[in-house]
Design goal:
The protein is of the alpha+beta class. 17% of the residues lie in helices and 30% in strands. The chain has three helices and eight strands. A six-stranded antiparallel β-barrel has the order 1-2-6-5-3-8. The longest helix has 18 residues. The relative contact order is 0.27.
């Protein structure tokens, strides 16, 4: 397995355990199991990635991420994200690999059942179990900070304009 990027995902948002928003202050869009037509799910390297995501519906949101000035008009906003791929070893209760996208914006409503497109443009770290929930939350906050920095780099910014996003 490799951490080669970009990786493309296109799936329907499904209900998960609900831990992201409630326990971790990091709500996620859990994508359907067939969300990666590019490669089989089991061949994806478990870990935390950063990139861009788009919800194929107008969903009201607030974002503090500075949008680059070279914005290309799309049907729906392309927003920064950090994502987890794997079996969540900290909780040790996920039987199959899952893709969880945390879009770096605050949404006023849920968007279960909606289609989300995402491009992972870089890899941050492998998944791991932590000594405490607080240590996991700290790692997630570090991942978010890293993704915000990396997404301002030229290669990552250009991925926002790919025709994969509508």
């Amino acid at each position: 397995m490799s951490t080669s990027t970009p990786l493309y995902f296109n799936g329907i948002v499904e209900k998960g355990f609900g831990r992201g928003g409630k326990q971790l202050n990091c709500p996620t869009a859990n994508l359907s199991g067939d969300c990666s037509p590019q490669v089989p799910m089991e061949s994806l390297t478990d870990g935390v990635y950063f990139g861009w995501a788009q919800i194929e519906k107008d969903v009201p949101f607030n974002s503090t991420f500075e949008t680059p000035s070279d914005e290309v008009k799309k049907s729906f906003p392309v927003l920064p994200m950090v994502m987890s791929i794997g079996k969540n070893p900290h909780f040790n209760d996920v039987l199959k690999k899952v893709v969880e996208v945390h879009i770096l914006a605050e949404f006023q409503t849920d968007f279960y059942g909606e289609r989300v497109r995402a491009i992972a443009t870089g890899y941050i770290r492998p998944q791991q179990a932590y000594s405490s929930l607080e240590a996991l939350i700290e790692a997630i906050q570090n991942d978010i900070s890293t993704s915000k920095t990396k997404l301002k780099e030229k290669d990552s910014v250009s991925a926002r304009h790919l025709p994969f996003f509508i």
